[in-house]
Structures are given as structure tokens and as C-alpha cells.
Design goal:
By secondary structure, the protein is mostly helical. The chain contains nine helices and two strands. About 50% of the residues lie in helices and about 5% in strands. The longest helix is centred in the middle third of the chain and has 29 residues. It is elongated, with a radius of gyration of 21 Å.
């Protein structure tokens, strides 16, 4: 039901897809609609990432006798590396990665399944809440219907919805993605501090990101010092 706006917002549309996949027109809001957000939250991918990262951290803490905070930091960096974020691992971290490769692969399989569910749900939400505004049949669209789409069309709709989720912005760079992961785990920074990498060498193991406002807020957990991390991982 439309609202009685004094001045109605201008709604533009964007064509999604191509001649091969077929072309659909979606309204552009530069954000997710409330219903879309609710559907996506049912999947809760981020909670799965956090849960599995903490699972790896507990094993690292026990096997390598590291302080809890250091173990969490190492686990976060290993998972970030595994999902494609360009983290350069220190020798000790790489040794842990090789030792725990089966567990990391198992975790990756779980995250892949969860990510696939999230992709499907976001595409379904787009069709239900955006195309359903003009076609009542689309309002009845389900995840099973989305699974029957061609991969090309599904990926095109998903890419469009990712831009909407980011407010129309371009994809975040790897450092920003890593920082978001750090913030979600309560860590100000997943990368070693400048000048004090874990291996004890004189260069950093990667670009250092600037903590976001969320990670520097009074309620954010503080990371252990670089010296403590160096000592723990060098043992």
C-alpha cells in the first residue's frame, strides 16, 4: 500500500542481466528494504564465521599453549587468508595452517554452504520485495525458485543486491574487508602492529589498517600488545 507522500521519492530502476541471461528491471534504493534485511538475517552468516573462527582458536590455544587473545588473533588471520583476504602469514602461523589444514578445510566447507544459502536468500529477497511490487507472482517467489535460475542471472541479481547493501558503493578493498572481520570478532586489528610482527622481524607482514570507530569505542575489546604476541608466537 503506497504512503500519502507530500513529495514522493524518485525511484529509478536498473537493468540487471544481459541478452544471454535475460534482463530484469529492479528499483534502486541504495539500501536493503526492511523485509529484505529480515530475510537475510535468518541465514546469519556472520555468526557462523565467528563461531567457526572461535572453534579454530580454541584448538590453537590448546595445541600451541598461546594466550586466548593471541590464539583468536591467529585463528582470525588464518581464516581471513583462507577466504582470500591477502594476509601474509608469519612462519609460525603458516606452520599452524599446515598442521590444521583438515580442520580449516572442514570449516571452509561449512562456511561455503552457509554462504551459498546467503546468496540464495538475498536473490530471493530481491525478487520478492522489488519485483513483487509490480508482479504479484514474484511476491510468492521462494528459495527453491531461486535455485532454478541460471547461474548467470542469479549472479547478476546478487551483484546488484550487494551494491544495494553497500549503499550503492563499490566493493570494499581487501584491507577494509579484513577490518570488518576484525571488528566483528571484537579485535581492533587482525594485522600485526607496525614494527612488531609476530615473527620478531623488523618489517610488517602486511598493510596495517586503521581501526574503525566501532573497534575503538569504549565497549570494544582491546587487543594484546605486539610484544606479548611476539613472545607468545615465538615460543
Amino acid at each position: 500500500m503506497p504512503l500519502p507522500f507530500v513529495t514522493a521519492p524518485e525511484i529509478r530502476v536498473e537493468q540487471v542481466g544481459d541478452e544471454t541471461t535475460g534482463i530484469l528491471e529492479f528499483p534502486v534504493f541504495n539500501s536493503l528494504l526492511a523485509g529484505e534485511r529480515m530475510m537475510l538475517d535468518e541465514i546469519d552468516y556472520q555468526s557462523t564465521v565467528n563461531e567457526q573462527t572461535h572453534r579454530l582458536a580454541r584448538i590453537i590455544q590448546e595445541m600451541d599453549e598461546l594466550p586466548e587473545e593471541v590464539a583468536k588473533l591467529v585463528a582470525s588471520r588464518l581464516m581471513a587468508k583462507h577466504i582470500g583476504i591477502p594476509v601474509v602469514l608469519e612462519p609460525k602461523e603458516d606452520a599452524i595452517r599446515k598442521r590444521e589444514h583438515r580442520l580449516i578445510r572442514e570449516i571452509d566447507n561449512r562456511l561455503s554452504a552457509q554462504n551459498e544459502a546467503q546468496v540464495t536468500r538475498l536473490v530471493t529477497a530481491a525478487i520478492v520485495y522489488r519485483l513483487g511490487r509490480v508482479d504479484p507472482d514474484c511476491a510468492k517467489w521462494s528459495d527453491d525458485d531461486t535455485r532454478n535460475l541460471t547461474e548467470g542471472l542469479r549472479n547478476a541479481i546478487y551483484a546488484f543486491m550487494l551494491r544495494e547493501q553497500r549503499g550503492g558503493a563499490a566493493p570494499a578493498d581487501p584491507a577494509a574487508t579484513l577490518q570488518l572481520m576484525a571488528d566483528s570478532l571484537g579485535k581492533p586489528n587482525l594485522l600485526p602492529p607496525t614494527g612488531e610482527p609476530f615473527s620478531g622481524s623488523s618489517t610488517t607482514s602486511g598493510p596495517v589498517t586503521t581501526p574503525s570507530p566501532a573497534s575503538t569505542s569504549p565497549g570494544a575489546r582491546k587487543s594484546s600488545s605486539g610484544k606479548r604476541s611476539t613472545k607468545a608466537l615465538a615460543s
